[in-house]
Structures are given as C-alpha cells and as structure tokens.
Amino acid sequence: MARKKVLDFSYLDDHLLKFTEFGPILETQPYAMDALLLDEQLMAISHIGLPKTYNPYYGALKIEHFDPEAFPDFLQLVEYISRFDASSMLAMPGNSLSCRAVEVLGTEAQKERFFHPFLSGPVWTFFAVSEPDIGSDAQHISTALTQDDTGALILNGHKYFIGGAQKASTGLVFAKHGHHSRLVMIEPDQYSVHFHVEALHPYGLLGTELSALTFDDLPVTEAQLLGGPQNGLRHGMNTISHVFEKHRPLVAAMALGTAYGLLNALDRHGIKGLNHYWRQYHSLYTLMLRIGDDFHAGSAKVHLTSLLKVRTCRLVESVAYQLAERLPREIWLTDYRLQKRYRDAFAFEYMEGTSNIHRLNAYRSFTASQGVPL
Fold first, then answer.
1. Which spans in the chain are helix H?
2. CA distance 174 to 215
3. Acyl-CoA dehydrogenase/oxidase C-terminal domain: which residues (predicted)?
4. Which domains does the chain have, with CATH numbers?
5. Model confidence over 295-327: pLDDT tens digits?
6. Model pLDDT for residues 87-108, shown as the tens digit of each residue
C-alpha cells in the first residue's frame, strides 16, 4: 500500500531555481555549471546515496521530515527537482549507476580506488552498456576482453549513448570475457591512446552529455575486473539487474516532475482544459509512491516499474505538445526555457529502456507472477 505522506521540499526552492536558470545555459556552455558546484545544497543532493566514508557532503543537506536513505523519499525528491530542471540535475557530479554497482559488487580495494577521488573534488562517472547495433541488450554485446600475444588482457569495442563519460575520471564497461560477462573499471586519463570519447548531440536532456566510446586494445589488469578475477557476473547478474531496476523509477520520477513543471507553466499562462492531464499526474504520483514503498520493503514488482516508465513518458510528451499547440505564439516563440524543456520531454523515452521494451518486460513479469508459463 502506498504511503500517504507527500513530502514538502519547498525549503530547497532557492537552490533548485539555479537548475532552472542554468539549464538552458548548459546546453551551449557546459562548463558554466561550475557555478552550481559552489552550492553546497545542490552538491549534497547529487551525492545522496554515496557511501558515507567517501561522501564529503554527508550531513550537509537540509532535511525536514526527509530520510535521504529511504528510497520512497528519494523518489519524491527527484520528482520535485525535475519540476525545476531534470537536465541540470543529470549534469551534476556525484552518485550514479556505476557507484551503486561498485558498492554492491566491488572488492574492498576496488571500492577504495573508485570512491576515494570523491573526497578531493567533483567526480563524474559512467556506466557503459549500450552499443551501436544492439542497444542495451547485454546478452548480445560485442565489446570484449581478450588476450594479446603475451597473454595480457585487452579491451576492444564500441559503446553508444553513454552519459557522463566526457568529464568522467572513472567508469564501468560491460564486456564479454569468454563465455561470461564482466564489468571493467576504466580510468580514462590513463588510456588516452586506447580510449576515445566522441561527444554526441542529443535533442533533449543535454545535461547527460551523451558520448560514443571506442576501446582499441585498451590494456586491462585483473584488478580492474569488478569483483575480482575469479568472480564473474554470472553470480552477480541478479544484483546488477536489481541496480538497473531500481534506477528506472528514478527516470520515471524525472519525467513526472518535468510534466508537472510544464503543466504549471501552462496554468500560469491561463491555458484551460488541463484537468485531464493533472488527474493523470496525480494518479502516476500515487503509483510512484507505491513502487517506492515496494522497493523499500524488498518486494518490487517489475511490471509496475515498467508501467510507470511507459505512462510517465507518455504523459510528459502529451503535455509538451500542449506548449506548441496552445500557448500564444509570442510566448512559445520567445520563451527559450520552455522550448528547452519541451525538447527534454522527449528524451526520457530513451532512458533505461524504450516503451516497447517495458511493455514486453511488464507482460513477462506480470504473467510470471501469476504462474503463467511463457
């Protein structure tokens, strides 16, 4: 049963308004975000979930009836931030998908190597799975670890649509290794000859700074194999799947918060007939709370997570169309912030699986939960 408490984060508004201000600027001046790095509250938010030992902002966040360690509370925070600007939030350094993977699968030495730099400055990371021809289908990736003539490990392959790599000091690469799969820790600055990052130019959510990565005989040591040389992902795939699955409601929360921000803008300009969209928003918010509670209780249901992702993407895109169709021309053609957030609205579909994939996931998960063989 979903919790009834809706948290109030309005005490953070003065800080979050900087996301709104800098969102459009970051599209053409990525390093303008240096100003955001000076805001302790924004940095504390972006580091939520980082291991306490390595989190320089632990305890710095203003907390009012909010537990940053509780996933339902964190979902509400992400949704609220996205009302201001999800792209700016995604551009920030701090906790990430790769951080969660290292925390649950890494050896103690790997955790120290990966997380220690967070103590001395802003750190961006990446998690490279998707490839040009097969997307994020991990079973059919071509990036591979092999041995050269001397028996040393080398990494070759291509990754595509990878966020954070342009500034990253470290990251994880999903690769084949014989008949198994491995996650390889990479520190880009050490491999300039063997590692190439090409900036892509997405339509929306430019804060992700998507890139194409190329690995050309990149030397790899056993110490870089996440979990150690004898611990392949065969026994860790359920854990990795859980890490990904827990990330998907966060994307849905971003889409939902963006829809709220756009609906609020339409309301401010006196656009009528939005009750249908607001009802959808509140219904999906309730579903988001239920999913957050399920994750917190260890009883998450894949089909509900996929349902939330599909429906929030559909809602934010439907609301975005209202901007172009119903706003007065002089407003729509001159408000660059709304134009930017319009573009952002259509990017959530491609984060953490498209709707077609999630419809299939929802079908498989629900039928399996009912004991129906596939």
1. 13-28, 40-46, 71-91, 97-105, 108-115, 237-268, 275-296, 302-326, 329-332, 336-345, 355-369
2. 12
3. 235-364
4. 10-71+84-97 (no CATH), 107-224 (2.40.110.10), 237-369 (1.20.140.10)
5. 999 898 888 999 999 999 999 999 999 999 999
6. 999 999 999 999 999 998 999 9
